[in-house]
């Protein structure tokens, strides 16, 4: 434990800083630690005098807080040689305050989540009753309440998607990817929106972005393989179909897509299964009924 004068001063300074920020709990913890360090260290002479002056001021500022005035009507003061006792008292107060604040925070969180549930249910009711303006209003309220709630934007976006409100769905799903890019479920939903809007290129880019971040995913690679086949991009079809089959060798759609691409590229629907697929291969174009 660093009991140097410099470290004691730093903790006293932190106590004052947190007090200015209206964070009484952190201020008390810093002050309690400074007192403990002062009690455990060997600080003498001018440095001790300077630290005692700083400590007296810090204790006085803390005791001016209404919460501590109520707890200690007679007040507390720093007295040389009594630092350990004062530190123990301040630490007890900090622990008690932390317990109270923890309960208050949990209660506030409970109320916040209850309000969030109400807003989401009201928004869904608006969608069910074909009242998109009402739905938008309640979903905006949900975001105002808990915009940092994991998955909230994706949840709202999926609700708009299911209701056929694609522009709104795109807005919320894009926001989910922006704030939590490591959450997968918004990517395929956003790609579905773009497909429905006739923007296949954007849908493909969203799926590729998901694969770059998360690695091969059976359902997403399968969608890319189908899209590539529709564009007659045979090598891309085969690459994605093979990724599907690596993850699930029994995927029949993946097998069909791989065979179709293999037939065109190598002239043999089973060539992709060989170590050297180009051996004796002849390219023949075929179409697969999807």
- Give the number of DSSP strands: 0
What is the SS-derived class? mainly alpha
User: Number of helical segments?
Assistant: 13
Report the mean per-residue pLDDT as an integer.
91
Q: What proportion strand?
A: under 5%
Largest sheet: none
Compute the number of structural domains. Answer: 3
Termini separation (Å)?
A: 71 Å
Written as H for each helix and E for each strand, in order along the chain, the element string is HHHHHHHHHHHHH
Runs in which pLDDT lies below 50 for 5 or more consecutive residues are: 281-290
Helical proportion, percent range:
over 70%
Radius of gyration: 32 Å
Q: Looking at the structure, what is the overall shape?
A: elongated
Structure overview:
By secondary structure, the protein is mainly alpha-helical. It has three domains: 5-104; 150-208, Tetratricopeptide repeat domain (Serine Threonine Protein Phosphatase 5, Tetratricopeptide repeat); 216-290. The radius of gyration is 32 Å and the shape is elongated. Helix content is 73%, strand content 0%.
In short:
This protein is mostly helical. The chain has 13 helices and no strands.
Highlighted features:
290 residues, 3 domains, mainly alpha, Serine Threonine Protein Phosphatase 5, Tetratricopeptide repeat, 13 helices
